[in-house]
Design brief:
Elements: E1 4-8, H1 13-23, E2 28-33, E3 53-57, H2 63-73, E4 77-80, H3 87-92, H4 95-118, E5 126-130, H5 155-174, E6 178-183, E7 185-187, H6 196-205, E8 210-213, E9 219-224, H7 225-238, E10 244-247, E11 251-254, H8 255-269, E12 282-285, H9 300-306, H10 314-327, H11 329-338
Parallel strand pairs: 1-2, 1-4, 2-3, 4-5, 5-6, 6-10, 7-9, 8-12
Antiparallel strand pairs: 9-11
Helix pairs in contact: 1-7, 2-4, 4-5, 6-8, 8-10
The structure holds nicotinamide-adenine-dinucleotide.
Amino acid sequence: MRNNILICGGAGFIGSHYVRSIIKSNNNVINLDLLTYAASKKNLSEFEKNINYKFIKEDIGNKKKMDLIINKFKPNLIINFAAETHVDRSIDNPSTFVDTNILGVYSLLNSSLKYWKKIKNKKNFRFIQISTDEVYGSVNTGKSNELSLINPSSPYSASKASADHLIYSYFHTYNFPCMILRPSNNYGPYQFPEKLIPLIILRALEEKKLPVYGSGKNVRNWLYINDSIDAIKNISFKGKIGDVYNIGGKEELTNIQLVKSICSKLDKIKPRNNKKKYESLIYYVKDRPGHDLRYSLNSKKIFKKIKWNPKIKLDKGLEFTIKWYLENSDWWKSIRKFKYKGERLGTNK
Ligand SMILES: NC(=O)c1ccc[n+]([C@@H]2O[C@H](COP(=O)([O-])OP(=O)(O)OC[C@H]3O[C@@H](n4cnc5c(N)ncnc54)[C@H](O)[C@@H]3O)[C@@H](O)[C@H]2O)c1
């Protein structure tokens, strides 16, 4: 069946990978994105000639415009990746996080509900929200499953948790057909270099010091972008309405282990001119305020019910990612020049 898919936030990291993979299956796609600093038009250039694809620059919170777009396009799937996504920026300026991640989602949800109430084929429609593992907050022991307490600690995760609660309430109150997906830390090509993995790769290539927050002992669960997209696509069509799905990778490691692993891969792939190890660039900086010690997802539900499993091991995924940034310096050099130079954010000063 040919689907009409409205993708919100498809010019960012995960959204653009989703567009790339969904467009291959001959669906009609509208990619709607406000093009904030985190978006890149270069992420989209390869789709522009595709007749089944249209890009619209818009804010998910613009109710009038969203009503018009949704009523005209008649989507059977609305999937929302649009968000402010960087924890450090949420510490410096929470207001844009409230605007997009709470009020924007609220507005998008209302436009979607209004549309769904009008259509005949109600069963063929679904709304998917891309949430995050960070809504569970720090877990010192054990793992968070879909029924675990929501306990966010940063303005970013609190804004994402608020959206989850609103969406779930629309399922209970109006039977609105929605699902909430909670991926762990994604990484891979096209990720904006404020996030840990590309930040470290690019700073290392630029021979800059490699900052590690606090003791470096914070634990994260890493998921290669292709695995994440595979999971999202599978759940989009096979998932149960009203359900929440964790999407976790199988590898957890401390930030310092991760940074050292990137350094040793770079030593092999692109040795430094002075022959020193990249590890010698590592230094510890003051911790992020409110830094969650550990995220850990229990993803048994998606393994069992959707039969999805991550395929790319961190070792390989990091290699692919490093090589991509080496081969695509045009992409990140313009970001470096015009948007973000790699400086420390989120110090609460
Ligand atoms: N990257 C990760 O590791 C990760 C992990 C778990 C969950 N998530 C979630 O996945 C989603 C996508 O994350 P990402 O890493 O691709 O983010 P990103 O920052 O790379 O992209 C976000 C996109 O949303 C767009 N956007 C922002 N505000 C908007 C608005 N008001 N209206 C329309 N578009 C708007 C931006 O222009 C950008 O293209 C987010 O909801 C995020 O919370 C990300």
